[in-house]
């Protein structure tokens, strides 16, 4: 199985990347874009594996079974830097560290490959730190940036990158992947792929974990329970509470483990007061952990909002009689009733309200208040 087989429905991009991997001097910077679920990071890693593949014949690069391909896909290859920020934004310190790593010569392969997910999380100051390194990298360094769309990256960065534009795979392709790779029953696989709107990672979670399915069902059923302001406030508070609990559960075990590892690395005493020099390092670690927890919480809330949008997307589909399939087929009758009691203009206003909330929760506003305001506007 080659590294390209995981890129569902991306024949044009696969052809582009395969040809580039066969070149002696491929383009030094790439920008992988596509909507959520299109597989931007998977495509970047597949290309990285092909660039570092050990096959002598250029046509065979990206074989998927040599040591280089397997370690790249596992993000453990010596010449690969696979960066995913755990902060709401890529910090200047993280950008500087990437620039330093990009200067290293390859140790075992032909290239030093820098994969940067969430390049859209770079603010202008951070982008300026990386601009020179991306524009004129060392001869054997290749940058692979990932973002939802070219417009999400500053023009100074995207103008220096070769684009690789992906699309969302078909529901049928995602379902077949779940069946083949995870042994999911066909009906459950098809339903999960549809509910996830072809997002492979989310479809996998919905197919394998019942709690993820029940949580999604709770979110998309919210409009059916809104009969007044108190209901709206309670629904918003419930979603916020779930997101906080998820972020705390994910963080607790990791935070304690990281703290213990740092104390051991710094030679701190096993008991008693922590020396002032070590206390500073602990404070920095705790600040990083708080930022990570906030990002997990924000991403969870954003996922809820995307799921909620599918309800109104289905309502609008019925109101406009587009003939498109419903994402939430299991709510077909409730969706029809909702569509009959509202106008397309009202539905669009509710979709806009959800979209504005997605933007607001990524700023410093209270996520709970933003959700409450949104829920009231859905009445």
TrEMBL record:
Pfam families in the record, alphabetically? DNA_pol3_delta2
Report the enzyme's class at the first EC level. transferase
Q: Which GO terms describe its molecular function?
A: DNA-directed DNA polymerase activity
Q: Which domain of life is it from?
A: Bacteria
Q: Which InterPro entries match?
A: DNA_pol_HolB, DNA_Rep/Repair_Clamp_Loader, P-loop_NTPase
The record's EC number reads 2.7.7.7
Family annotation (Gene3D superfamilies): P-loop containing nucleotide triphosphate hydrolases
NCBIfam families attached to this UniProt entry? holB, PRK07940.1
Kindly provide the name given to this protein in its UniProt entry: DNA polymerase III subunit delta
Species annotation: Kocuria oceani
